[in-house]
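Hey, can you fold this one?
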Amino acid sequence: MMKRVLSLLLLVAICATGWAQLQKLTVNGTERTYLEYAPKNLGENRPLFIFCHGYNQDAGWMMNNEFKNEKVSIESVCDTAKFVMVFPNGIDRAWDVGGDRDINFIKAIIEKMVKQYKIDRNRVYLGGFSMGGMLTYNAINKMSDIIAAFVSCSGPSVVTPKAGLRPIPLLHIQGTADNFSGVQPALNPWIKHNGGSTTAKVITNYNGFSGATLHIWSSGKVSGEVRLIELKDKGHWICKETQVYTGKEMWNFCKRFSLNFTAPNVSFTAPYPGTSHLFFSPADNLTLPNIQLTATASDPNGTVAQVDFYDGTELIGTLTQAPYTFTVQTPAAGEHIFKAVATDNDGETAEATVTVNYKVGRSHMFHNDFKEDGSLPIGWTTYDGSERRNGFGNGYSSGCRVLQFTSTSRDFEYGLYFRNQNGKQRAGYAKYGLDAAHSALTLTPGTYMLRYKICNWNNEEAAPIDICVEKKSDGKAIAQTTYTPNVNIGNDVSKSFKGTRILTFEFTVEEEDDYLLSFYAADKEWGDGVIGYMMLAAKEFTSGIETIHNSQCIMHNNAMYNLQGQRINSLRKGLNIVDGRKIWVK
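Sure. Predicted structure:
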C-alpha cells in the first residue's frame, strides 16, 4: 500500500512540474526506473547530467523537493543551458555504494540517452546527494572513462583513487552543520591524485552570499580540479539560496569539462560480469559448454577497424565488422578473464574485460558467498510474492537479502533471508541457478547430499521450508523434502540463537542437466527462512567425514579434502596425529 501511495505522489509531482512520465529500463534482469527532463529545441550533441537521490528518497523527491526554490529550478537551468537531466531511482530507495549494480544502471541510462537524444558522450556528468554522493565517489574509479566531471552534495566518502586514473574534476558541496569534519579527509586523496597544490585558493562571501566559502585546489590543468563549497551552519540538504543554488553551481562547474574522445568505445554485452557455472561430475574429461562473447564497439571520429578477443593473454579471435560475437569452443575449467580490444581507423585502441568462472568439482560451499550484509549473492534469485531480486545486488535495507548477525552467541554470522509476504502457494523463495542471476548448476548422474542449516527469522510458530531440486528447463522437482526449523532468530540480528541442526538431504540425479536448488518459505503470510550453512557434494565424496582443528574434512580415494574440495597435502599415508586425534590414511 505504501509503495502505491508513493508512486501516486510521484506521478502527481511529475504532472505538476511538466516532467516526463516515469521511465523504465531493464538492467541485468531487473526493472529500474528514472525521471528525465529534456528541454524543448534541445538539438544534437548536447550534455547529459545524471543526479542520484539520497537514502530513503526517490527521484521525485529529489527533483520536486530539493531542486526547487522560489526563483529558480533545475528545469530552468536545463532550459537555459540546453542539457538533459536524469534522476534515477535506487532499489529500496538506496544505492550500491561499493559494487557494480548501480554503476551498470547508470551506464545503461547513458547508452539510452545517447540513442534517444544524440547526447555528446564527451559531456556526461554525474552527481548525487548524501548516499547518492557516496555512489558518485564509487563511480569515479569505475566510470571516469565515460563521465567528464563529478559532484557530491553532502556525501563524503572513504573511496580513494585507483592507480592509473586520469586527473578528476570533482565538486563537493556541504554544510558545516552536516558532518563537515569528514569532508576534507574525503577530498585529500583526490587533491593529491590530481597533482596540484595542497593549499586551496579560498574565496569567502562566494557569489555575494556571506554563508558560502569556495575552496579551489587546482592542478594547473583544465582536466583536473577539486572544489569545495562550504555552507556555514547548513544541514543535510540541497542549498537553495538565490546566490548559491546547488543546481546552478554543479552545472557551472561541470560544463567546463569534456573528455574529448577520439579513441573507440568497446564494451561487453554478454556474458554478464562474474558469471559462475558450477559443474558436479566425477569425470575428469567433462565437456564444458561453449561461451559466447558479444561486444559492442564504436568510434566517435571514425570507424572501428577490428575487435580482437583474448582469453587472458591469448588471442582467440578477430572480427572486422559487427556484430562482434565470438564463440569460445570447449573452454577449460577455471576462471576466464576475457578481453575485447577495439582498434579504430586511426590506430587508437580501447579495451573491456569480463570474467567467467567455470567450476568443476564434487563439493561446493554456497554459504561462503553470504558475506556482505544487505546483499544478494550472484547466482541467487529471491521472490517474496511482491518483489523479485537477482544477484549480485546490494544496498538492500529490507526484504530478501543477506543478514549479518552480531550477537556473540550465534550459530552463524551471515544468513540468506527469504520470505512469503502474501501467503500464496510457493510465493516466497530463494533459488540458486536461474539465468537471471547469471549462474548455472549442472549435475551429472549420481547420488548427492545437500547439507544445510536453516532457521526461521520471525515466526511465533515454526514455519516449514520446502527444499527442492528442480530441472531448470521446466521447473519440475526431481527430489524434495520438507524441514521445520527448530530455531527462530526473533526478528533481530543482535539476538542470540543456538542449537540449529545440520540436516542432510540425499537425492539421486538420473540424467545430466542444469538444475535449481530451491528453498520455499511456508505458504502463510510472512512465512520465512534464513539459510546459514549450505553445502552440496557428490555422496561418494562425503564418506568418512572427520573433524580436524574444528573443521570438517572428507576422506576420498585415499586422500583428505576440505569441504571446498581442496586437497589437504599435509597428511600422509599411515597414522597421523592431528590436534590430538588419530587419523588413519590408507
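The two ends are 65 Å apart (CA to CA). Let me know if you want another pass with a different chain boundary.
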